[in-house]
Every structure is written in structure tokens, then in C-alpha cells.
Amino acid sequence: MAATEHASFANLQRAVAATVRHAGAGGRVKAARERASIADARDVAATERDTVADGRDETAAARDTIADARDRNATERDTVADGRDKTAAARDTIADARDRIATQREALIEDLRVRLEAANRALRERNSELRDFASVISHDLRAPLRRLQIFAEMAADIPGKDPEVADLLGRMRASSSRMEELVVDLLSYARVGASAAAIGPVDLGVIAREVVEELQGPITESSGLVHVGRLPTIEGDSTLLRQLFTNLVGNAVKFRQPDRPPVVTIAAGDPRPDGSGRAVVEITVTDNGIGFDPEHAERIFRIFERLKTDGYPGTGVGLAICRKITTVHDGSITAASTPGEGTQFTVILPVEQAKEQPDAR
Amino acid sequence: MRGDPIHNESPRLVLVVDDSDDDRAFVRDALRAVAPHVKCAEARDGFEALAYLRDESQPFPDLVLLDLKMPRKDGMETLAEIRADSSLRHLVIVAVFTTATDPAFVREAYAKGANAYLGKPSSRAALRNMMAGMVRHWFEVVTLPQ
């Protein structure tokens, strides 16, 4: 090797050394710089770490908030469900109450119906008992009475008696006949309620004319006159209504003035509504007889009530029967009178009878 | 004339069923007066009447006069029993009652098989008339079962 070569190597070595020195210095700087930048990065990372931690905290907080909200939501949902349950329960309670009320109402109605029926039955029984009572009394009174009459008759038929005995027997027979009349009339009074079931259309004009026909005997006997006006057809029991007219016209002829032939007028107005709105007819039977004191206008309808006992036969049952007949027909009868001038009976009867006739037989 | 005695008749027998001694006597008295050929057998209630009718040693009546109101066995029951008995059901039965004023009662008597219904009169003359009419109707006009 040449010296130059050797020199160059030395140079190179120096250069390298210089470079290395230089490089060394630069590297140090660079390293320092890098070190600084690493520190910076570390700071940044720390900051970012903090930020991330912060974020994490926030996320956790948000998660808590959400969980809270979810809880609240659930609670509210429970509350709503509770409310819904309560509403349903209330609805059930109301339905229950409604059912109970309906049941109670039905029970009440049934109870009322049963009680009404029982009352009705009791009334019917009492009615029929009353009728039975009257009819038993009448029959059972009549049997011994009949025998009494026959024995009195047999005794009266025995010839050659003391005149006083004959007179007493005569009085006995008159009294027992009188009692028989009373019993018979009582029986017919008792029977009015029993037979008021044959309801049908009744032409009052026809009935009145037939009654006048039947009473022709006493009417002609007293030279009397009976006018029958235009009378309507109404619903009723024809047997009873016939008896009503028979009793009224018979009464008018019986209680005539001794010196004046009886004049009787039967008249009727057109059907009109009464106080409760049902159609009624007003029938008047007017006479010119002896009349009576107006203060007795109600008394005359009582059974066995007689204002006149001298010279006028009868038991005082006729007008009581009239009252019963009008009552049975859901009507009324009243009397107005002027003594010495005459009497007017006013009968008010419904045009139609109620559909349900109790105790029909 | 009604009420006059009826003569020259074949003997007849009426069974009078009535709890009242007086009423049986009245009927006997009336029949004797208006129809002497009609004899009476007597019973005081339904039991006695049925016993008489079923007793073969007793003469069988042509007609039964049956009071409806009697103790023990009344007329309605007796009537029903006679109509249910094949050997008695042809009997002519005249139902008798104190009054004839209760239509339901009269209807019931006919429904149970009475051939006639009479209300008891309250005078001897009326009873005689009634008995005369009954005798004439059943023993002269009508043909009775033998």
C-alpha cells in the first residue's frame, strides 16, 4: 500500500469520526427532540386517556340515566297496568252492583207479586167464606123455620080450637112467614157477589122493557105508567142488571102516592168519561111517589133498612141489592128525593167491565 | 086436580132419606093424603139408605127421595155412590133440599146423577101439591126401570 492510500484512510477515518461526532451531536439533538416529542405524545395520550376516561364516565352516567329512565318507565308502566287493573276491578264492581241491583229488583218484584197474590187469595177466600156463611145461615135457618110453619099450619087446621089459640097461631104463622121472607132475601143478597161473573154485552133498553113487562101486574093494578127512554148497551151481568131494574121499578111502583097513579121514567145520557177517564153511562129512574127525607139518602141502601114499615111490604133488602149490583159492576147508585113529590135514583155504570173477572165460575 | 088423591094405582114404594124426623113425617103425611097407594120406607142418612138398598130382604123402592144435607153421609155422596154401584145406578133419585135458590148446588146435584131436584116447601098444602106432582110424573107419565 501506498502512502496516499494510507493518508486517505486516515482522512476517511477522520471524516467518519467527524461525521460520527457530527452525527453524534445531531443524533443527540434529534433524540432530545424525539424525546420531547415522545413526552408530548405521552401528554397527548394522557390527555386523550383522560378524555376517554371522561367519555367512559359520561357513558356510564348516560347508561345510569337510561337505566333510571327505564326503571321509571317500568314503574310508570306498572302504575298504568295497576290503573288498568283498578279500572277493570271497578268495572267489575259496577257490573256486580248492577247485577245485585237487578237481582234485588227482581226479588222485590217477585216478593210484591207473591204478597199481592196472597192478599188476593185471602180476599177471595174471605169473600167466599162470607158467601158460604150467608148461604149456610140462610139454609140452616130455613130448615127449622119451614117445620115451624108447617106445624103451625097443622095446628091451625085442627078444628074446634079456642079463638085465642087460633089468633095466636095466626100471628105465629105471620111471623114465621116474615122471617122466611127475610131469610130468602138475605140469601139473594148474599148471592149477588157470587154470580157476578157472567159478563157480556147487555142491552139495557131490552132489559128495562122486559122488567116493565114482568111488573105489568102491579103497574096495571095501580094504573101506573113506565116510560123507557133510549138506553145504551153496556158490558155487565144481565141477570144482575135485570134485578137492578126490577128492584128500582118495583120500588117506584110500590112507594107510590096513595091518590096518584105512579109515573116512572127510565132514561140515560150518552156515554161520557168519568173522573178517571173511563166511559160511563148515567141512568136515572125517576118516580112521582111518596119520596123520602133527603137526610136518609144513604141509609136506604143499607140491608134491612126500611123507612116505611106501615102498609108497605118488604124486608129492606131491595136497594141494598141494587147497591151491591152497581158495586159489583164498578159503578154506583145514589138517590135524591123530595118528600111528597118523588124520588130519582141515579145509576152510573161503566160501558166496559175490567177484563179480569175474579172468581169466575 | 093437583093435590087430590090418586086412586086405583098399583102399590109403589118411595125410600125417604132425611135426617129430620119431622121432614120424613111431613112427606109421609103428604103422600098418605095425595097418594095412599104409595108407601114409604125410611132412612136417616146415606149409610142407612145404602144399607137398605143393598139388603135383599127389604123391598126395593121405585124412587128415592134424597135429602142433600145430612150428617155422616150426605146426599151428594150417597148420590155418587148409588150411581157408581152397578146394581143400584138405574134408580130414580129425586134430590131434595131446603132451598132451590143456589144454582151451583142444583147443578151439582144433576151432575152427580139426580133425576129431579125439589126445594122443600114451607107449607103443608105446597108439600102435598109437590108430592102429587111427583107421584103423577114418575108413577104415571114416566116408565120406570123394573
Record keyword descriptors for this entry.
A: 361 residues; alpha+beta; 64% helix; B: 146 residues; alpha/beta; Rossmann fold; five-stranded parallel beta sheet; 5 helices; 41% helix; 18% strand
Short description:
The complex is a heterodimer of chains A (361) and B (146). Chain A contains six helices and eight strands; from the N terminus they run ααβααββαβββαββ.
Q: Can you tell me about this structure?
A:
Chain A contains six helices and eight strands; from the N terminus they run H-H-E-H-H-E-E-H-E-E-E-H-E-E. Chain A has 361 residues and is α+β, with helices and mostly antiparallel strands. Chain B has five helices and five strands. Chain B is 41% helix and 18% strand. In chain B, 36% of the residues are buried. The termini of chain B are far apart. In chain B, strand 1, helix 1 and strand 2 (38-43) form a beta-alpha-beta unit. In chain B, strands 2-1-3-4-5 form a five-stranded parallel beta sheet, with helices on both faces. The longest helix of chain B is centred in the C-terminal third of the chain and has 18 residues, at 124-141. Chain B is α/β, with parallel strands linked by helices and 146 residues long. Classes of the chains: A alpha+beta (361), B alpha/beta (146). The interface between A and B is medium-sized, with 22 and 19 residues.
List strands and helices in order, with pairings.
The complex is a heterodimer of chains A (361) and B (146).
Chain A: H1 3-157, H2 163-194, E1 199-203, H3 204-214, H4 216-221, E2 225-228, E3 233-237, H5 238-254, E4 263-268, E5 272-273, E6 279-286, H6 318-328, E7 332-338, E8 342-350
Parallel strand pairs in A: 2-4
Antiparallel strand pairs in A: 1-3, 4-6, 5-6, 6-8, 7-8
Chain B: E1 12-17, H1 21-34, E2 38-43, H2 46-54, E3 63-67, H3 75-84, E4 93-97, H4 103-111, E5 116-119, H5 124-141
Parallel strand pairs in B: 1-2, 1-3, 3-4, 4-5
